[in-house]
C-alpha cells in the first residue's frame, strides 16, 4: 500500500509508548489524560461563573470520566467487534484501552450518566454542568486526537498533499513500528491526516461556543446542544474521508449515520433552547422561555 513520498509531509512517531522500568507509559493515554485535565480546568471556571463553588466540577468529573472511558470502549468494541473476536484475533485486546479505540458516542452517553450521578450527589444542576463542560470536552477531544498520531491511526486516503501524514506499520502491543530487514521502521505510505482535521475542527468549535455563550448568554442546554451539533457536523465529513476499517450500513460507516442523526437532533434542541434563561446551579432548570428574542 506504499505511495510515493511527497516533497513534504507530517512525520509520525515510530514509537507509541515509553518504558520506565517495569512501567509502560502509552502516549495515547497521556494525550487523553492531558485533554481531561484541560477540560476539568475550563469546566470548573465556567461552572463557577454559573454559581457553582470551587471543586464542584472536579467532584462531578470524578464520576463522569470513568463512566465515559468505559462507555467509549464498549461502543468501540461492539461496533468493531471483528478486531477482537474474529478468528485469529486476541479477545483480551478489547481491554487494552491504551492501544487506542474509544467510541465518542459511547463515551458521551455513559459519561453523561456518570455526570448525572455526580451532579445529584453534589447537588449541582446537570444542565449547568453540561453547558459548562461543552467547550472543554471539545478541547479534550482535540488533544486526545493526537494520541491517534502516536498510534499511527485515524487517517484517510493516500495523499500527495504537503501535509500528508506518514504512517508506519505499528505493533501497538510492543509500542513501536515493525522493522524491515535493514532495521528501519516500515512505512505503509502517506495519507490524508484526518486526525489533524478533526483536532482543528474541535478547537474551532470550542472557540465558537465560548464566543457565542459569552456574547449571547445562550439558554440552558443550548451550549451543550451546540457542542453536539458542531462536533457531529465535522465528524460526518471526517468519517467519509477515513480509509481505515469500519463496519458499514448501506455503504456508509456506522459513525457516519450516528453523526447525521445526532446532528439533526442537537440542532433542533439548540434552536429551541437558545433564547431561554442561561443555565445556573442556583436556578431551576425548567425556567420559562423568554418572550423576546436576543
User: Which oligomeric form is depicted?
Assistant: single chain
Radius of gyration: 20 Å
Order of helices and strands: EEHHHHHEEEEHHEEH
Helix content: 40-55%
Structural class: mainly alpha
Main sheet makeup: 2 strands, antiparallel
GO molecular function: phosphatidylglycerol-prolipoprotein diacylglyceryl transferase activity
Pfam family, one: LGT
Function: Catalyzes the transfer of the diacylglyceryl group from phosphatidylglycerol to the sulfhydryl group of the N-terminal cysteine of a prolipoprotein, the first step in the formation of mature lipoproteins.
Keywords: Cell membrane, Membrane, Transferase, Transmembrane, Transmembrane helix
How would you characterize this protein structure?
The chain is mainly alpha-helical and 294 residues long. It is 54% helix and 9% strand. It contains 8 helices and 8 strands, in the order ββαααααββββααββα. Strand 1 (17-20) and strand 2 form a beta hairpin. Helix 1 packs antiparallel against helix 5. The N and C termini lie far apart (54 Å).
